[in-house]
Amino acid sequence: MQPLVESVFYWSDLFGTAVFAFSGVLVAGRLRMDGFGVIVLAAVTAIGGGTIRDLIIGAEQVFWTADTLYLWVILVTALLGQYIAQLPRRLPWYILPLADAFGLAIFTIIGTDKALSYGTSGMVAVVMGVITGVAGGMIRDVLAREVPMVLQREIYATACILGGVLYTCSLAIGITPLLATMLGMLGTFILRVAAIRWHLSLPAFSLNR
Amino acid sequence: MQPLVESVFYWSDLFGTAVFAFSGVLVAGRLRMDGFGVIVLAAVTAIGGGTIRDLIIGAEQVFWTADTLYLWVILVTALLGQYIAQLPRRLPWYILPLADAFGLAIFTIIGTDKALSYGTSGMVAVVMGVITGVAGGMIRDVLAREVPMVLQREIYATACILGGVLYTCSLAIGITPLLATMLGMLGTFILRVAAIRWHLSLPAFSLNR
Amino acid sequence: MQPLVESVFYWSDLFGTAVFAFSGVLVAGRLRMDGFGVIVLAAVTAIGGGTIRDLIIGAEQVFWTADTLYLWVILVTALLGQYIAQLPRRLPWYILPLADAFGLAIFTIIGTDKALSYGTSGMVAVVMGVITGVAGGMIRDVLAREVPMVLQREIYATACILGGVLYTCSLAIGITPLLATMLGMLGTFILRVAAIRWHLSLPAFSLNR
């Protein structure tokens, strides 16, 4: 990709990191955690998924150990986020879900793309995109002693799967990386926003025994 | 080992993967998870232990990223399993525990053997066998917000330890790999089945304070 | 460092391993776990943090797979610890917290130092020191189905941060490794002991919604 596109991508990733970190801050606040707990929940939400991905694909370095800016974004989000979350004047309710959907889209494509660059099959790459998108939130929920939201509610991970499949298939049929990225991100973003807007969810599987 | 033995071993491993995945499906059903949650619980149960093992011993590749068949087995089990679990006509009650004990035996020996092939000591190899056998189920239980069953109930992990020790010691005294595998698997399988049949358990350690 | 210092350091590390393992034994006892559960909780508390650190920094070997003595210390602690915990005559109450603070100090410096030796930035090294010190206890608490203590109560992880920052900065300004180690360990130890003695804690962040 061209330098400009690379740059937009990188800053979008940092933006997604901040949004995911902020969702960790909100959970920490509900559990009355201390400052360290806020940072930990922000960090696992924001970089937990990417860390697991990097370990499994055997990346040379876990991404945030090579580029400290991710940690700084988390730290600043954890500190500022505590005040922002308590402000009386609020943003419109849809801002945070939209930002989260955008973060989910970029995390998914970055994860899928990184796995492909390490030579995995398309199927494994899609799984890595999903892990990048949702595993951090799952660890956050486990630390907060909740059944991970993503396993029970609205379409969330499914949006990652759609985006990852769109991206991988687009590349496979020879579409340019930039267009494939657009398609993949749009797939994840639109399905996620639609799920929020119309409360779409997968049918629950229930064994009453 | 000869090609035929290798082949039997490989298909047994896939069978164990399906059985472990199905146990994840059952837990997901009790928690009313959606389709994605079913797949995640099936996957962590089936390949969680082997993944942790491969990361810790520093395997060149995590096994399921190199051979996509494991993911397909999990996906098919997660989809078919939801229907099988709801069928009115049931298999005899002992089929699933027997299949699970077989899966535990094969996972244990595969984990112990892989660790040894990476040059670990016998003790570390036994630990890796145990991790391969039980860690996936522990993650499943944590995601389901339960204290992992394996830490509290019936003899389960102890059967892995027995099998791993039998296998490692057999190799150490010069028994052929095939026979050592048989001994190790039988050790795990028989102790586990006996524990189910006669409700054997280790004494609980209780601090009432 | 000189051989004598190396040796003192190594045995201190094993002592910290035993103390952390014992804290796992106590939690297992409250949950009425069986013998295997006691060993697992002892092990994850004692070596869980160092394992995550070694995976993330990409150490050639996870430390306890290269030196089996750690596993033996855990095994012996898990077995003896069950009896010690039930003895009617008790040690003075402050012995265990002091030992734990010492273990925290040594784990923090070892983790920070190991990360630096793999070429990480100072900030990442401090994070690795914190992970080495507290991640094992967090896994223990998650397995015990509790919100990790370290996220909510008294100053604990903050003591790791202080020690890691002192150590890293000392090295950066040219202080000898031995003195930097002393400073770092003292920083962690004293802040932790002070937190216990005067019940110091960070303010909780609470969102009442």
TrEMBL record, chains A, B, C:
It is found in: Cell membrane. Keywords: Cell membrane, Membrane, Transmembrane, Transmembrane helix. The chain crosses the membrane at residues 12-29, 36-56, 62-84, 91-110, 122-143, 155-173. InterPro entries: Gly_transporter. Signal peptide: none annotated. It is a multi-pass membrane protein. The keyword Membrane applies. Residues 10-81, 98-168 form the Glycine transporter domain. Belongs to the UPF0126 family. This is Trimeric intracellular cation channel family protein.
